[in-house]
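Hi support team,

I'm opening this ticket because the web form for multi-chain structure prediction keeps timing out on my end. I have pasted the exact lines I submitted so you can reproduce it. The total is 1410 residues across two entries, so I didn't expect it to be a heavy job. Is there a limit I'm missing, or should I split the entries? Thanks in advance, R.K.
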Amino acid sequence: MKNFKYVIAALMYFAFAKASQAQTLKSPNGDFEMQFDLSQEGTPQYQLTFNGKTVIAQSSLGFDLKNDEKSLKNDFEATGFDNSTFDETWEPVWGEESKVRNHYNEMLVSLNQKATDRKMNLRFRLFDDGLGFRYEFPKQEFSYFVIEEELTQFTMTGDHKAFWIAGDFDTQEYDYTTSKLSEIRKLHAGAIGDNASQTPISPDGVQTALMMKTADGLYINLHEAALIDYSAMHLKLGEDNRTFQSWLTPDNNGDKGYMQSPLSTPWRTIIVGDEATDILASRMTYNLNEPSKIEDTSWIKPTKYIGVWWEMITGRSSWDYTDEIPAIQLGKTDYTELKPNGTHAANTDHVKEYIDFAALHGFDGVLVEGWNQGWEDWFGHSKDYVFDFVTPYPDFDVEGIHEYAKSKGVKMIMHHETSGSTRNYERHLDTAFQFMNKYDYDAVKTGYVGNVLPRGEHHYSQWINNHYQYVVEKAADYEIMINAHEAVRPTGIARTWPNMIGNESARGTEFQAFGGSKPNHTTILPFTRLIGGPMDYTPGIFEMDISKVNPENNSHGNFTLANQLGLYVTMYSPLQMAADLPENYNRFLDAFQFIKDVPVDWEISKYLEAEPGEYITIARKDKNSSSWFVGNSNGTTPRTSQMSLDFLEKGKKYMATIYADAKNAHYKDNPQAYKISTKKVTSKSKLDVFTAPGGGFGISIVEIQ
Amino acid sequence: MKNFKYVIAALMYFAFAKASQAQTLKSPNGDFEMQFDLSQEGTPQYQLTFNGKTVIAQSSLGFDLKNDEKSLKNDFEATGFDNSTFDETWEPVWGEESKVRNHYNEMLVSLNQKATDRKMNLRFRLFDDGLGFRYEFPKQEFSYFVIEEELTQFTMTGDHKAFWIAGDFDTQEYDYTTSKLSEIRKLHAGAIGDNASQTPISPDGVQTALMMKTADGLYINLHEAALIDYSAMHLKLGEDNRTFQSWLTPDNNGDKGYMQSPLSTPWRTIIVGDEATDILASRMTYNLNEPSKIEDTSWIKPTKYIGVWWEMITGRSSWDYTDEIPAIQLGKTDYTELKPNGTHAANTDHVKEYIDFAALHGFDGVLVEGWNQGWEDWFGHSKDYVFDFVTPYPDFDVEGIHEYAKSKGVKMIMHHETSGSTRNYERHLDTAFQFMNKYDYDAVKTGYVGNVLPRGEHHYSQWINNHYQYVVEKAADYEIMINAHEAVRPTGIARTWPNMIGNESARGTEFQAFGGSKPNHTTILPFTRLIGGPMDYTPGIFEMDISKVNPENNSHGNFTLANQLGLYVTMYSPLQMAADLPENYNRFLDAFQFIKDVPVDWEISKYLEAEPGEYITIARKDKNSSSWFVGNSNGTTPRTSQMSLDFLEKGKKYMATIYADAKNAHYKDNPQAYKISTKKVTSKSKLDVFTAPGGGFGISIVEIQ
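Hello R.K., no limit was hit. The queue was backed up. Here is the completed structure from your submission:
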């Protein structure tokens, strides 16, 4: 009987091996073709073509496992191919459009490692805008394993132009470098700036989302989707300057992932298009995530806010209350006995000024940083019990500010800096969220500045990614929206957990006050960082000469004022800050009007023109009115955007207000030169708008009734 | 002005240096003398004598700091000596006696490291039973530092006999070895048994409390007190076989402690006596802890209990519910679809049998292990989300059992195995404790089997010790008593947090079902493990032939039945289990009577005779009656205890019931041979009671009204 079974199995195997170890999958529109195969050694492989052009050449898949010589690299046979198709349209709680189509053809490849009988499946989903695939481990005796490295390859076909930041296990806050793949190694050291926590991975490692452009004009974007309970993926460029291989963030012991079947890894994504705008229009990353797990989402609200923040970032004010002590011990240090330093911004009177400004100009909320005790030694000391998230400084009246804001129709926005002390934050999470519920805060900006605790872990390791997710889910229990700074880059999880309304996870506007970012920075971010989800970029800086805010800070913001307006459209986020000081807005109230008018939730988005590193122009229709808004961010070359307004509803008349760079504007020496003009337009209109180096524009298009 | 100041300072320094760099301190009764000094290099030193005999020879103090060449080793000057005396009597919530005297002379040595201006103080407290000292760092600019190693020395004066277990960062569950100090290295490898988590530290490392006896009959005990937010101390024996140096438990990165001034380290303790019983009678460890931080302690109740436990330990029953799956995922695995394995002990009917037995015999509580989902893959997999502490198996009716127990006047005792997954436990702690409150559980046995998470941390590192303390304090908020197994050895913290009513932290009775412990094990534990606090040793095993409980288990318990009775007195604990199966107690109901009668809280304790490794006899007076109980645990040599009952109240008459080994009893081949006799006694009576190898006895002495 035993022998008989063996014969049958062997026969099946040979028949199968001959017939069907290679399979192809096409996208719904037929433009993409993905081929799966097994190498002679039984290593899974795939390749991807787009309109007949190879995008990903033969690339292998698998894992090195810890203390497991066999690992999951070869000796596989395919035991089944299940093909299916899927087409749905779902409605996000917030987003760039009110309806999202999720349409793909799928192939599930069932693999068996012959010598070990381990099952590893590969699920490929081919959309009209690219490929997503992941590893799946069904329930089996092979339950527990530890990943030494994921061996997913992405083999490029040429020396593409890439828009990259250096791989790092602890920060994503680097300026982008634009270079050929073959130039990455030599430019790598220069691509690493200073950060409060950083662990560069090697001279050939880059981060995702990685944006590339081929010599023949194809746009390729590599990233991941649904990064949950797994470590974040970096890409390591091979010696051939063509082949990227996944490089997971290690834990403190160098291990990359503790796994238990049944499980699915995050998706690996390859978005491809003939036009740069195809990349911006892709919804693949969200589509590869699960539908919302929050049933009642009525409490999740896109928000425009100001904050007691830029004055600390520029160094004019301080987060901390006193300069009298080198270190504090929460619950033991009595602040009322200490001398205030006189620069503490989060004091009741000053916060009320911000509330007044918010109320006057119709902002939804006011963020206040530095309101709670502990900022005197808040990072850099590997301090465990660094904040308790509920105890205010003596000059911050929680109750009074709550009442005052309420009377003005403004929401206070909470701030939880954790200093990377994740256990401490988790210990206080319920209390902190209960405190928020009590005082009517419905959103919190979290922060993870400095090295994370447990010590030796990394910002993007499985252990810490699990923490961020824990906070998001716990926040949902309390109906709280999360905007996490210094956390792992988003991967579309906001579809599943739409209370994650923002993330930083890249070099934000704050770096303009720390020495500056490259002038074309915001023409790249939508192709990289924003692929995974919205960014709390905090635009709206009207005073680029930072010394005018703080004489001791000689930084200069590398953008024009009109550029800042355009970002409210080009840098999609349901959470948008007007980051500058009220005093600076008061100097330019005509331009400020655009920030007041621009919505934070959209029905339709049209990606009019784009070239990473050069320019981006996007038109979006307000979700709650017939108005449209157009935004542009420009790189270093002056140019004129030529737009057809054919996206407007036919037969309707609109008034366009154009907030543009003046002809002599320049991010470096004339950034505040802008021009506001109005023009009646229809769907037949065309508009030419000039943009200066580091410039941009914002246009509001309001229906004339 | 600057120069003038300097001159003054210099003059003061020289005057001071000559006059007072060495100081002595005497104990209240004058028996002890401690001398503090600074070496020529400015290294702090101390020595200790007892009745003129040197106990600790010149020993140095200090720290190696991480990335700090200067560290805290030398270059110190003494800038002040503050002497004081203290005498109080406090009343513990529970204990070996109802009043504890805390009487010491203190010397606070203020030190300044000249080149760095760092302040490090040493606080010495000299009691009539020994010395405690700790390091203190006052508030200063030198706020943050990382300990590479603590350099506290304990220099012995000879090749003492030691009762030791191998140093290990993850387990204390070793059998004791008795040897000379000079023999430790060669016996070390053989002293290490198997454990689910173990990290032996080196061939010359031992754990505390370390018990020693000198050639001239002095008893010396080294341990620590108030181990809070610090890593547990091991002792490393120097090449000279005389000098122990502290060896702290490292974190995952090899660091020993992250510190912030102001701070105090745990106390280092040296208990000394002419008699072994002096060590048992010492309250120094408790006295060096802070008074209770729990104001209302009325809910803390000494408890005698039985449990659904020994049948799993012996392998007769199982914690897990099914054998059908290799691994489970909480919330996803549906147990109702899985086939029960038929050996799951924590099922409602069976638990009710235990409740009936507890009610019949007057026990306070019933512990049930394996009641909650997750035991199928509970340890050994580095599993993060291993238990949720609130979801029962399908055959365990939480509500029904709660009601049934209540109707019988019995408390259910909760069990939280964490599998060392500390983050997961903390995440569920509030919910788990709320669940306990709801179902009227007021005590929980926690467990930390297997390697701890975060991965790479150790059971006794600062990070994990902080976790145990967090649980104790959180439990106090919910009025819950904690009995932590596999946690760090206690250090008298129960004075401050008297809801910590038990700990394992040593080789418990369970090892008798895992192959056996040495027959004299319980004659050593009171000198070592119990110095820091009570142990949930789980005595009361009446059936030593484990194969009679489970035919597949050939273990043998190395003790007599009478010995097990004696342990209820000799192994002090406010939490005492009768660990055997009801069916075994039913076979020996006359002996079982002693377990039913013996109290778990005491007014007075008299340490009648003791020799570590040989025998211990203790008499204790019930806190709630006039009754006395005497217990004995004997080593391998048969002997007769000769007791004067002069501790009884003069003029009163008592009936003594003596549960003793029969003459032919022997732990190996005749362990159940016991003899029960009664005798009228008074304070003038003397009793001779025979004890067999591995034997012992229990005596109840009840006043005749």
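A quick check on our side: The longest helix of chain A spans residues 2-20. Let us know if the file doesn't open in your viewer.
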